[in-house]
UniProtKB/TrEMBL annotation:
Single GO molecular function: FAD binding
Domain FAD-binding: 299-363
PROSITE patterns with a match to the protein in the record: PROKAR_LIPOPROTEIN (PS51257)
Cross-referenced SUPFAM superfamilies: FAD-linked reductases, C-terminal domain, FAD/NAD(P)-binding domain
Lineage, highest ranks first: Eukaryota, Viridiplantae, Streptophyta, Embryophyta, Tracheophyta
Superkingdom field: Eukaryota
Protein name as annotated: FAD-binding domain-containing protein
Positions of transmembrane segments: none
Length: 398
């Protein structure tokens, strides 16, 4: 049985692992011309214990995951008084067992553990058609380098094509993402070779537990996230309420002008403590993400086409869920298809949907509420700590 995976991001490569282990032949189509190198738009992420266990089971050298991540053992929320430039701790959880990672490091670990011949880089998905009896699916793709069109046939199509999924749109033509009401400035500050600078000394004085703490700073109608990555990098995110911007090039990452960056720098001075504002201003190439999610879908497969990752459940980032949900989607999909066997594909997909939909639906809605509270768009009613996320201690796999 042959599975065609559209999308070579973490959701796609995770499915390549799980389906290969389940006995499937796998082909991954990705429009990028080559595997992603480290870039600012693939900034930081947090991995929970369950996702880490799954990833390690896929790697020939599991210890590499710990070597390329830093612990996040503390989850701390603190309030910032923007006028007096002082802060006070609101909540502190010292049993927060996550690890901080660079997106491209995790992708690289997963990709390098696979047979590179199963990837077709520079292949842009165009369309698909299911056979009359529903037993096969034919995918049409554009080879970017030559501009020729190629048809590929398989038994299963896995849509790992992100929150703007074109495959999902085929089945849900009226589907629309829900704009959260805010965007996120993001940046990675590199202090390698500059560890004794005034900026780094100041930030370490104000955030003394960098390297093991996930800091949330809450000000009036805004909040920021701050933590350390491996190799002397500091990852920050700042959520800003604003009208919905216009998306271009089918991407939720906006192209920012120097004027937009300058305005962000000025606002940082008025809202955050001087040490954090200074670090934001000294960060090279900050970028802006538009934050979307969607109401839970009623189904995530049709025939022999299945959604995984952000294609199945676009989410806001406030529960550190996106990557973790993608890894669990892949693991559950592989287990369900492996246990039901190729002759019972529809049964395996039904089981995948039955296990994952209740989990991801509750997590997406909880992350939405948490973000709205931290942005001053909603009143309280839920705890600020990550540990209150549904299925925080583990989601069912079978």
């Amino acid at each position: 049985m042959k599975a065609i995976i559209v999308g070579g991001s973490i959701a796609g490569v995770s499915c390549a692992h799980s389906l290969t282990l389940a006995g499937w032949d796998v082909l991954v189509l990705e429009k990028s011309s080559e595997p992603p190198a480290r870039s600012p738009t693939g900034a930081g992420l947090g991995l929970d214990p369950q996702a880490r266990t799954i990833i390690k089971s896929w790697l020939p050298h599991p210890h590499l995951l710990d070597e390329t991540t830093l612990p996040l053992s503390i989850d701390q929320n603190q309030a910032t008084d923007s006028e007096k430039k002082v802060r006070r701790v609101l909540t502190r959880d010292e049993s927060f067992d996550f690890r901080a990672a660079y997106w491209s490091d995790i992708h690289g670990l997963l990709f390098n553990a696979l047979d590179p011949t199963m990837f077709l880089w520079g292949h842009k998905f165009l369309s698909f058609a299911m056979s009359q009896d529903g037993s096969t699916v034919k995918v049409e793709t554009l080879v970017m380098e030559t501009q020729e069109t190629v048809e590929i046939q398989g038994d299963l199509l896995v849509a790992a094509d992100g929150c703007l999924s074109s495959i999902r749109k085929t089945f849900l033509p009226n589907f629309k993402l829900r704009y959260s009401g805010y965007c996120a400035w993001r940046g990675v500050f590199d202090f390698s070779g500059d560890e004794n600078s005034e900026t780094v000394s100041g930030i370490k004085r104000e955030y003394p537990e960098l390297g093991r703490c996930l800091y949330f700073d809450l000000a009036m109608n805004t909040h920021s996230v701050f933590y350390e990555l491996i190799n002397k990098k500091l990852n920050w995110i700042w959520y800003v309420n604003q009208p919905e911007p216009e998306l271009k090039n089918n991407s939720v990452t906006l192209k920012v002008s120097q004027e937009m960056i300058n305005k962000m720098h000025q606002e940082a001075d008025t809202i955050w403590i001087p040490e954090l504002a200074r670090l934001m201003k000294e960060t090279k190439e900050p970028f802006l993400n538009v934050i979307y999610d969607c109401d839970p879908l009623e189904r995530i497969f049709w025939g022999n086409v299945v959604l995984v990752g952000d294609a199945a459940h676009p989410t806001t980032p406030h529960g550190l869920r996106s990557t973790n949900m993608s890894v669990l989607d892949a693991e559950v999909l592989g287990k369900c298809l492996g246990e039901c066997g190729p002759e019972n594909l529809s049964l395996g997909l039904e089981e995948y949907q039955r296990i994952r939909l209740p989990v991801v639906s509750k997590q997406v809605l909880y992350a939405r509420r948490l973000g709205r509270i931290k942005q001053g768009l909603d009143r309280g009613g839920i705890g600020l700590e990550q540990k209150h996320m549904p299925f925080f201690s583990g989601a069912p796999l079978v």
